[in-house]
Give the backbone structure.
Amino acid sequence: MNEILWKIGGEAGFGIKKAGLLFSKLLSRLGFSIFNYTEYPSLVKGGLNTFEVAFSDSQKSFLKKDIDVLVCLNEKVFNVSKDYIKPDTRVIFDPLTFKPEGEFIKVACPVSKILDKSGNSAIFSNMIFLGVTLFIFDFPIEKAFSLINDVFKGKSEEVISVNKKMISEGYSWAKENLGEKNRIKLNKVSELKKRAVLTGNDAFALGAVAGNCKLYAAYPMTPASSVLSSLALWQEKVNSVVVHTEDEISAVNMAIGASFAGVRSAVGTSGGGFALMEESISLAGITEMPLVMLLAQRVGPATGMPTWTEQGDLLFSVFAGQGEFPKIVLAPGDVEEMFELSMKAFNLAEIYQTPVIVLSDKFLSESYENIDVSLIKEIKDRVGIDRGKTSETFTKGYLRYKDSQDGISERVIPQKNGVFYQANSYEHLEDCHTTEDPKERIKQVNKRARKIKTYLKKHFSSPKFYGDKDSDIVFVSWGSTKHSILNAMKLLKSSNKKAGFIHFTHMYPLSTNLGSLFMDKNKRYVLVENNSTSQLGKLLRMELGVNIESKLLKYDGRPFLPEEIRDFALKI
Amino acid sequence: MSTIQDFTGYQPTWCPGCGNWGIGVSVKLALVQLGLSPSSTFVVFGIGCSGNMNDFLNAYSIHSLHGRSIPTAIGMKISNHEFTTLVIGGDGDIYGEGGNHFIHGMRGNHDITVIVHDNRVYGLTTGQVSPTADKGFKSKSTPQGTLNIPFKPLDIAISQGATFVGQAFAGDTVSMVKIIKSAISHKGFSLVNVLQPCVSFNKVNTYAYYKERLLNVPKVFTTKKEALSFVIKARSDDKLPVGVIFKKDLPTYTEMLTQLKNNTLVKSPKTTDIDSLLEEFI
């Protein structure tokens, strides 16, 4: 099995991401599984941007510590990466820019000379490096050209041909100067399924379309912004409306207004914007309005480290909004789960007429994976659209907030000559009018709370168990740490250590029956979280009375590498 | 045809003599005279004495959060632009807490009518200064007199993109009905600022205070420059204009959205096919 990590880095503005994404799509088309991870500072020019592409001939690929090919557009990327370089790492650099020292395979490609000769500017150096890369892996250059044709569709002939030419120049240089011994031999990949290269945000945006979301309102905020730009680009095609509002408060209230009018709506933001939306989450709670919110977490508090990852807002989302009302919090672990759970979120919001929060983070929102197009379609058909007790007709004596056994009242979409009613932010009677009567208050509180019981019975998904049932160690985690842990388990297996893994995606409300999952006295349960206070640990203590002592926490803004989790597990 | 009874909900809980009574009746009369019914009208209420109209006026309505009625109404209008959409709130709600939405909501010329009960105080919280109060106004929160100059809703609306700007006086329901009717009939963002005495907490800006200062708008201005000069001149003369001050016909937000050309958003065809979208990711 081949597990390769290719990393490119350079100053912002030099097409680091573009080159990385092109390479990933090429790999995907060639039949490899890919996983990408990008790091960049919160600025537009300068600084250091890196893009890592992990690829494999197995079904899933993931990050690892050791770099196989390092493409250095400048010295900085070499300096931050040198701890992960092995003697057989190919380090590609321009000797006219800098000369790295150390024990590894040096690929000194005179990129600036090639650029000078062809009269092209430095922004094309990424394509030359890509050409060298293609040679190293012995990938067919024609495949790269047809990819360029597709990706640059709509751009001028000139742009397309310059990009192709620079790739060829890099490839030719490598062919003349490197020889076979510097190539990396890969297994042949046989299965050629059509796969889409998607980030978690792409998956949310596609899930929103598949879930018939008609109004998306947002204020740009890293790392949620790409959902806004994707949906904005597609709006005419899919008959939806996307509004970039003056602030997050406006966005969430617009979504609530749309929801009242009968349209599926959503908002997306990060922690700071979510904080501004909080009061309206509470509004959606008491008015029983469907509301889907994407909360793509980043490093806080306040402005924190805007372009880095953290799972710091789990409890914030669980407790968001004043007062007591039902709210559903979901946390997909990867792109596939993101697509499924975002579609599901739109269903749950309408079935339970309450806010549903989809938790992501920078790592999931902005890292790419390739998944089978056929799988996406299968999920779409399986989840489908379920509007619950939403209807367009009504019977005489209709009461919007009528008490019911499952806590859910019928919701009639406003129609002309229909039955008018109000969505009241004050406590209200079954007929919507404001009340302060103690009995009516209790009736409505209990009605709303009953929705939680119904949800736990009908739509809650218990955490998924992965790995060996008879292991000594069981990792307990949630959301985007999924693949770090799964890959750590693979590494542990090769060290003859068995491990299990309990992965939560349906974060809140939690079924209280789950306590038994953590009761095996012969096992060591280990919480693995990308935060400093172990928020899942606190939630389990609060909801299940379970106390997990052992914790592996990471809060430096970076995701877990599988090796870190393995090393922790081997020590205990 | 609907009647005033169709729009009438609970008996209002406003103080006897409150300007809200006149506004409440005028809104209902305007809706009836325009041939609308509670089931063809969206209304979003703010929080405050004015917002409490939610229980007194029948409509498809949201009693929203303090300050947030404008974006809520915009969401409703974009989703079903066949519905007449009103916002009813107070000066503290719309100009204070919701000031950002007031300023930016106008920029898109959303076809909504915003009726502001402007009484220069916070009534429901028992008498603190509001953004429209004059400098020096003494209240529970400003016992020494406010140091702020007043917010100028008319000037802001005219310059910021509202395509209909009017002002009414709560003590004159006849002309108020007319102004509200033209505001609702206007296609685009309409502001009706209603000068409203608060008999319980504002002893300065009384019925008599307003009556002395009212000035009928001589004509509807169609340029911002003329409208603004008129409003500024009236202020320097210590006068309060009443009537339709500015009106301009421009495309509304939903008219400008090509995807809403043939249908309202709520009735637009379900387009959940993602196959063609996926192509760009391969």
